[in-house]
Design goal:
Layout: H1 14-21, E1 28-31, H2 38-45, E2 52-57, H3 60-69, H4 71-76, E3 80-84, H5 90-93, E4 98-104, H6 109-114, H7 140-146, H8 149-160, H9 165-174, H10 182-192, H11 206-217, H12 219-232, E5 234-244, H13 247-259, H14 271-276, E6 284-289
Parallel strand pairs: 1-2, 1-4, 2-3, 4-5
Antiparallel strand pairs: 5-6
Bound molecules: S-adenosylmethionine.
């Protein structure tokens, strides 16, 4: 299986994911976050014919990308199924219990850099969409338009841990008429953030974009539900491996594992991986083994 063209995304903590899933060649595994297929394809390599892998993603574009780029592998491995689904409903799409579940949270580099959905504050000309699943009804721009100032401030504070949440929400509502694209929002945010607070090393829009994306896609709600439902479909001794990219996600994973009686160690990328793939810098992996 060779490296595919048009790949944006380097799988994060790849070897660590495979090791911690403890893959049995005849086991049944679910990759909840297919993305560009980086983890899935390596899981598949470890399975015999009797083993199987279900890979899901809520983004149709990710599904299409993998189906187009891995035609040969899909043809060859009848035990690899790919399906568009939200992992919060994992219990509804499985007909039997599984040995291992992987969640590699957040966005793929492809979504950030090539989806033209305005996920990144660096893509100035794009519309403020931010839906991972294009069937969702509300885009980021709808949230800015229809939520009141107080609710926006709450979103920026809770989902972005933004210190200037109130001031940014106020500026956005006062200037809503001029906000259509990513750059329009960037402009308003930089006017709102007082110079004294601005972190010179970080983009002033970073936290607001994270917050909007989390709100549009209900990322934290999906994670809570997805973990609970994953636990219920796991066999005894089965494993859930979660890679998160910010503290809001990691807190949910840590709390959930603790409730289930697991003390989870954190696994982080090596310096070498971070050098090769700077996007992996904030990654944290936790592993749960179901005891009963
Ligand atoms: C970081 S990427 C995964 C990258 C993948 N492991 C790889 O190596 O190519 C995360 C993916 O998860 C998907 N995703 C996020 N939340 C989801 C959810 N609730 N259900 C299903 N897919 C989700 C995103 O659409 C995105 O494609």
């Amino acid at each position: 299986m060779t490296n595919k063209k048009n790949k944006y995304h380097k799988p994060v903590l790849l070897q660590e994911s495979l090791e911690n899933l403890n893959i049995k060649p005849n086991g049944y595994y679910v990759d909840c976050t297919l993305g560009e297929g980086g983890h899935s394809i390596e899981i598949l390599k470890k399975l015999h014919k009797e083993g199987s892998l279900l890979s899901i993603d809520r983004d149709q574009d990710a599904i299409d990308f993998v189906k187009n780029n891995y035609k040969e592998e899909i043809e060859k491995h009848k035990n690899w199924k790919i399906k568009k689904a939200n992992f919060k409903n994992i219990n509804e799409i499985l007909d039997k219990k599984v040995d291992g579940i992987l969640m590699d949270l957040g966005l793929s580099s492809r979504q950030l850099e090539a989806s033209k959905r305005g996920f990144s504050y660096l893509e100035g000309s794009q519309d403020l969409d931010m839906r991972m699943d294009e069937e969702l009804s509300a885009k980021a721009i709808d949230i800015l338009n229809f939520y009141d100032e107080k609710t926006l401030a709450k979103i920026f504070k809770e989902f972005g841990e933004e210190r200037n949440a109130k001031r940014i929400a106020k500026f956005i509502k006062e200037n809503i008429g001029e906000i259509k694209t990513v750059q329009d929002l960037n402009n308003v945010i930089s006017r709102a953030v007082p110079a004294a607070f601005a972190d010179k090393h970080k983009h002033p829009s970073r936290r607001v974009f994270q917050a909007l994306r989390i709100a549009v896609n209900d990322e934290l709600g999906n994670l809570r539900e997805g973990l609970e439902n994953s636990f219920n479909v796991l066999k005894k001794d089965g494993r859930i491996v979660v890679i998160s990219f910010h503290s809001l996600e990691d807190r949910i994973v840590k709390k959930f594992f603790k409730e289930k009686g697991e003390k989870s160690e954190i696994i982080v990328p090596t310096e070498e991986e971070i050098k090769e793939n700077p996007r992996s810098r904030s990654a944290k992996m936790r592993v749960l083994i179901k005891k009963n």
